[in-house]
Inverse folding.
């Protein structure tokens, strides 16, 4: 299967082209089934490549498939080539697997939409771009996919562009991601200047062999992190992701929970050897940005009332956990949490889509309640996702989050404390969401009266085509932790650290070694603390929102996201706009004016000189004679030669 590695992105490409040509004829739902089949076929090929790599020795688990020479320019030789190794195939497996389930869900969710075919056209294009991103053998090919997912994100977020809020959110995502792109491009320039290549193998080998100077490695690492901050919605560039909820819910699940936003984490893990040889402050910056983002977003989530906004800020927070892992040298834990997060966050987003569908497009949780009675399957699967993200054992989220906290404590106690506080808040706001949506009193009758629907407005369960992905994702959220179980006495040795063994060829050089530290020797105690943190958050939310024993604390400052987004908006619309206009005026009048002025001066001077060119020989002879006389006068009078 390694020889047909190119089929992994080829199937979504085929789906995109077929829907582009025949989408209107296929219509609803055939174009959706075609798009789903293409992504499912890509998943099957990914499984085949995984089996091939698994049968090889650790040293052989890297295969490059070159399609053609893409940029043959002097010393810059870049091939359009794909790399199959444990990291890229891990990404392909969960990207195509989760994406296929989301495509299936979207067939039911988008049923009846007048732009049904176009929606799946964009989805297949997005999956193609994401696969190019993770399979790229060099950073330029990855950047091609990087820009592709950014473009698709814009198209999908603003899919319902007739709504001003959706159009604005799409533009916001596009512009914010351009800041991150600047960092990735500069990192590429540094790589080529230092190594003469943008190939992952060449750059990482230079780092491992000491051929990459610490200053250069630090610059590359921090510039790549700028790109990751933009794509993976970290402080200060997280503002685009909460607004991205304006897109259809399957978009939220696919792009902003399971795939696109993890691209930044993937990039940092791919260049882990560069991070290892960079200055010590580089990974420290990454860890602190991740920890503060996780805590910051979690505090905002506790006061949100839009069912999708809660999950949006939760995504920002969980991505912060992944960067906390990267900064702590826990690259395997970062990928582990990426995989488990893809399962339970896709489940939660699709579950919220099922709720919105059953509630006739209502998203305000204050107008829900008791929906478990009317939507039992949606409720049951959503509860599984809640327990997984809250860190309740033995669900997947518990194992991955616990491993991140373990490495964090071995690296920094303050960062560990922030991680534990964030874990408590995560359990709290997710429990709050579950209680407000599925338990308590039914509050949707008031909404029905507002719309004059009365009795016919009752919520309803989603169709089977939307429920099947929920059930599958719920199962994955329960068992996905088995891929990286810790070394405990109760865990069979053959089940311990399987993901670490699989990723070992990629992260061997940079993975932190914590054996013998206090954290490693007291894993059972730390597991107990992690469980206690989850239970504290759950019990506290239950007392507040179910038993009403404690007054809810939802200050406006948290509901408004610490006024961070609003402050940026005011600046951009006020002083920022005036500053940009002043810069544009300076560029037009001063910079361009100076250039145009020089051109006009040269033109005028040339015109004056041109008048002396009469074309008459006698005129030229007279001028020559005058010149000779002047030279003689200068020699006699000035130089005194006579």
């Amino acid at each position: 299967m390694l020889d047909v590695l190119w089929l992994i992105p080829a199937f979504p490409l085929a789906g995109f082209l077929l829907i582009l040509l025949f989408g209107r004829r296929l219509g609803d739902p055939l174009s959706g089934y075609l798009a789903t089949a293409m992504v499912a076929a890509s998943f099957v090929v990914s499984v085949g490549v995984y089996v091939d790599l698994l049968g090889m020795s650790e040293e052989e688990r890297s295969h490059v498939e070159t399609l053609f020479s893409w940029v043959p320019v002097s010393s810059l030789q870049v091939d359009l080539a794909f790399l199959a190794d444990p990291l890229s195939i891990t990404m392909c497996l969960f990207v195509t697997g989760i994406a296929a389930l989301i495509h299936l869900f979207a067939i039911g969710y988008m049923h009846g939409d007048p732009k049904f075919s176009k929606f799946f056209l964009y989805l297949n294009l997005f999956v193609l771009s994401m696969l190019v991103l993770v399979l790229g053998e060099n950073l330029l090919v990855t950047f091609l996919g990087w820009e592709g997912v950014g473009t698709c994100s814009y198209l999908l977020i603003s899919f319902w562009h007739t709504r001003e809020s959706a159009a604005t959110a799409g533009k916001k995502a596009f512009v914010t991601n351009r800041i991150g792109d600047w960092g990735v491009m500069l990192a590429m320039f540094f790589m080529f200047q230092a190594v003469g290549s943008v190939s992952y193998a060449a750059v990482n080998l230079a780092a491992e062999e000491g051929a990459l100077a610490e200053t250069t490695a630090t610059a590359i690492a921090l510039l790549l992190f700028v790109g990751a901050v933009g794509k993976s919605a970290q402080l200060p560039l997280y503002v685009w992701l909460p607004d991205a909820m304006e897109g259809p819910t399957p978009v939220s699940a696919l792009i902003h929970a399971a795939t696109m936003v993890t691209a930044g984490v993937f990039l940092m893990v791919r260049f882990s050897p560069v991070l290892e040889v960079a200055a010590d402050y580089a990974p420290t910056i990454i860890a602190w940005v991740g920890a503060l983002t996780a805590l910051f977003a979690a505090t905002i989530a506790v006061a949100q009332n839009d069912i999708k906004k809660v999950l949006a800020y939760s995504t920002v927070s969980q991505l912060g956990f992944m960067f906390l892992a990267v900064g702590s040298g826990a690259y395997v834990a970062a990928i582990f949490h990426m995989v488990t997060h893809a399962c339970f966050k896709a489940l939660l987003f699709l579950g919220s889509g099922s709720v919105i569908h059953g509630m006739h497009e209502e998203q305000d949780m204050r107008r829900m309640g008791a929906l478990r009675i009317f939507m039992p399957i949606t409720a049951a699967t959503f509860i599984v996702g809640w327990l997984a993200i809250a860190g309740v054992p033995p669900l997947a989220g518990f194992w991955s989050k616990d491993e991140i906290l373990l490495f964090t404590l071995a690296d920094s106690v303050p960062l560990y404390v922030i991680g534990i506080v964030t874990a408590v808040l995560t359990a709290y706001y997710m429990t709050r969401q579950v209680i407000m949506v599925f338990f308590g009193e039914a509050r949707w009758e008031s909404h029905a009266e507002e719309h004059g629907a009365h009795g016919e407005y009752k919520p309803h369960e989603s169709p089977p085509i939307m429920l099947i992905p929920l059930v599958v994702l719920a199962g994955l959220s329960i068992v996905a932790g088995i891929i990286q179980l810790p070394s405990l006495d109760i865990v069979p040795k053959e089940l311990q650290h399987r993901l670490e063994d699989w990723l070992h060829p990629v992260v061997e050089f940079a993975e932190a070694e914590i054996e013998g530290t206090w954290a490693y020797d007291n894993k059972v105690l730390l597991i107990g603390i992690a469980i206690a943190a989850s239970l504290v958050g759950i019990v506290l939310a239950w007392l507040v929102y179910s038993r009403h024993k404690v007054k809810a604390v939802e200050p406006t400052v948290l509901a408004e996201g610490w006024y961070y987004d609003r402050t940026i908006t005011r600046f951009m619309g006020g002083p920022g706009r005036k500053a940009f206009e002043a810069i544009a005026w300076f560029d037009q009048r001063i910079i361009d004016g100076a250039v145009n002025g020089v051109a006009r001066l040269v033109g005028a001077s040339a015109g004056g000189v041109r008048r002396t060119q009469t074309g008459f020989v006698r005129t030229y002879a007279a001028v020559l004679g005058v010149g000779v006389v002047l030279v003689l006068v200068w020699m006699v009078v000035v130089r005194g030669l006579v």
